[in-house]
Design a protein that fits this description.
Helix content is 29%, strand content 30%. The protein has 420 residues and is an alpha+beta fold. The chain folds into 3 domains: 184 residues, no CATH class; 117 residues, no CATH class; 55 residues, no CATH class. A hairpin with a 2-residue loop joins strand 15 and strand 16. Helix 5 packs antiparallel against helix 8. The longest helix is centred in the middle third of the chain and has 50 residues. The radius of gyration is 25 Å and the shape is globular. This is PilO.
Length: 420
């Protein structure tokens, strides 16, 4: 990602860092350094906001230096401390988009999901480039607020907070920017530890490790045994619920779609571009194309990604914890529920396809019992409407979402309707 350096007061700030999450709270600097070596970056800034930690990477060969401060780190810290105004309250904000005019005429763009910058969520471009990116990411849904200069207020974003860059930087009494040392880029130390220290560490590990090995092994076995027992209990409960009322095993549409958007985290791992994201009840599937990146950069971010033989496409399938099931509410008549949902969607210009689901074929030698409800499959293309808004429109008894697919800046939502 190309960096951009801008002057604010007496100090220079850098935008365009490549952000990645960190997972070792006690070794953030070491983890950041290890990750930087993998992606050939020699400068890094480490930020901690709320309960997350991230590293933003840059390369001195691109013009970055240790004299620069990260503008993204500064702005995100202010929002972490102040929160933002949305849903009628000033409250913490974990999912936000920002578009702010810089003094040099360019625009800075920020995209933060679950308090983490997206890998390419720190970007500078022309007003048109930033607005194009803003609208593209906004279509994904799941954002608490959009923060930007007042001139963007007529763009139609929900929960828009009009703020300029000056209001998002802490100030001293004399009006100058109050800098914090951790905003500054640091050199990644590529030197290895002396061989004596390595040998000493190995000796200590050998003495302590022998005593702890069996204790850890038994603890793991007990944890696995308990997890298998709990899994068996969950399967039994689910089977019983399916036999009674299958819609009682599925979350409400809004909850299902909120979980799908919240789990959409690997948008551009290592610079690869997301082609498709499929969210189902028990698994997530990503598909990316390489563009100008490399397999090594993808592997550094997503080690489990499966790359095709040509090296230009990759996929990842991961299990997920299903959203909490909704209550087994009383069903409505077919005409009442289908008409209600279809009418709501027609009001926002969305076509709604409904097909009666065929019952399963009878088992030879057995008489099929008639179910006391009817089942319909549905599908819709949300276009530019956020999934959470679609979830609200689908909020009717017996309506459940089973699959959501993000592709080509649009969501395809599929599900089932149970009716009397």
């Amino acid at each position: 990602m190309a960096i951009h350096i801008t002057q604010i007061g007496k100090h220079r700030f850098v935008c365009g860092l490549f952000w990645q999450s960190l997972s070792r709270p006690r070794e953030l600097q070491r983890e950041a350094a290890d990750l930087g070596k993998k992606i050939a970056s020699d400068l890094v800034v480490v930020r901690r906001d709320q309960t997350t930690a991230q590293a933003g990477f840059a390369q001195s060969s691109d013009g970055a230096s240790r004299a620069l401060y990260s503008l993204a780190a500064a702005v995100s810290k202010t929002l972490a401390l102040e929160g933002a105004w949305y849903d009628g309250l000033q409250q913490p904000v974990h999912n936000w988009l920002g578009a702010l005019r810089l003094a040099d005429g360019k625009w800075a763009y920020f995209a933060v999901r679950d308090a983490n910058f997206l890998p390419n969520g720190d970007f500078v471009g022309s007003r048109e480039e930033v607005l194009d990116r803003l609208h593209t990411d906004y279509a994904l849904g799941g954002w608490n607020v959009v923060i930007g200069d007042a001139e963007l207020e007529n763009q139609g974003f929900h929960n828009f907070n009009a703020r300029d860059l000056d209001s998002l930087l802490p100030r001293r009494k004399d009006g100058s920017v109050r800098l914090h040392s951790w905003w500054r880029l640091r050199q990644i130390n590529a030197r290895t530890a002396p061989w004596k220290l390595i040998a000493a560490g190995a000796a200590i590990a050998a003495v302590g490790g022998a005593g702890l090995y069996w204790q850890a092994w038994h603890a793991r076995q007990e944890a696995l045994r308990q997890e298998e027992m709990f899994a068996a209990q969950r399967r039994l409960i689910q089977q019983q619920a399916v036999q009674a009322k299958p819609w009682a095993t599925l979350p409400a549409p809004a909850a299902a779609l909120r979980a799908c958007t919240d789990n959409l985290v690997e948008l551009t791992p290592g610079g690869w571009l997301l082609d498709e994201y499929v969210c189902e009840r028990e698994q997530l599937r990503y598909a990316w194309s390489r563009r100008a990146s490399t397999i090594a950069m993808l592997r550094a971010m997503v080690p489990a990604a499966q790359v095709d033989a040509g090296g230009d496409r990759a996929t990842l399938v991961t299990p997920r914890k299903p959203a909490r099931p909704h209550e087994a509410e009383a069903l409505l008549a077919e005409q009442d529920v289908v008409d209600a949902v279809m009418s709501r969607l027609q009001g926002v210009g969305i076509a709604f396809k409904v097909v009666r689901k065929k019952p399963p074929p009878p088992v030879p030698g057995q008489v099929a019992a008639a179910e006391p409800w009817q089942t319909f499959n549905f599908a819709l293309d949300a276009g530019g409407i956020e999934p959470q808004q679609i979830g609200a429109l689908l909020d009717q008894p017996g309506v459940r979402v089973e699959k959501a697919t993000y592709k080509g800046m649009s969501w395809i939502i599929e599900g089932v309707i149970y009716a009397k």
